Amino acid sequence: MNLVSLALRVGEPLLPLGRHLPFVLQRELMERAVAKVFAEPLADGSFNLLEGRWLRLEISDLQLAWCLTYDGVRLRIEERASGDVCIRGRWREFLLLASRQEDPDTLFFRRRLVIEGDTDLGLGVKNLLDGLDPDQLPPRLWLLLRRMGEEVRQASA
């Protein structure tokens, strides 16, 4: 068993425990992570489509959700906000999307990821994420995402 398989096997039962972390801690960790991971797209205005708008991300099988907006400087995360659009799915589908192991259109067409609300905004966010260059991610993070996504894709095949 390789290290990625082991991480997924050990991590999967622990993931649902994330919903028990205080939201203040979730927000702090996530805001720092997205600021670092999306530094270049934030600087070039790629996230302007979220300015004054709210995106709700729900990971249904983990019972986790966050609301994101762009305030003109950074991505902000709140526990609750009047969401303009919601993208919902299981954690494995989000991992497949992030690791580019599954085409985003396929995930949405097969309703493995669902967009509700302002579908134009949802499609804009989907296209934004799909258009991000993985080379802008820290190399170790991209390698880990890709390998975990490959593992999940093979396990579900």
Q: Which word captures the global form?
A: globular
- Mean of all residue-level pLDDT scores: 90
* CATH uppermost class: Alpha Beta
CATH-assigned fold name = Nonspecific Lipid-transfer Protein, Chain A
**Class inferred from helices and paired strands:** alpha+beta
**In percent, how helical is the residue content?**
40-55%
- Give the uncertain stretches in residue-range form: none
Trace the largest sheet across and list its strands. Answer: 3-2-1-4-5
Record field, number of beta strands: 5
Please write the string of helix (H) and strand (E) elements.
Answer: HHHEEEEHHEHH
End-to-end span in angstroms?
18 Å
Please give the count of helices. Answer: 7
Write down the Rg. Answer: 15 Å
CATH superfamily: SCP2 sterol-binding domain
- The total tally of domains equals 1
- Major sheet size, sense and barrel closure: 5 strands, mixed
CATH architecture: 2-Layer Sandwich
In terms of DSSP E residues, the strand content is 15-25%
Kindly describe this structure.
The chain has a single domain, classed as Nonspecific Lipid-transfer Protein, Chain A. The chain is 49% helix and 17% strand. It has a five-stranded mixed β-sheet with strand order 3-2-1-4-5. It has helices at 3-14, 23-37, 39-43, 91-98, 104-109, 119-131, 139-156; strands spanning 55-59, 64-70, 75-78, 85-89, 113-117. It has 157 residues and is an alpha+beta fold.
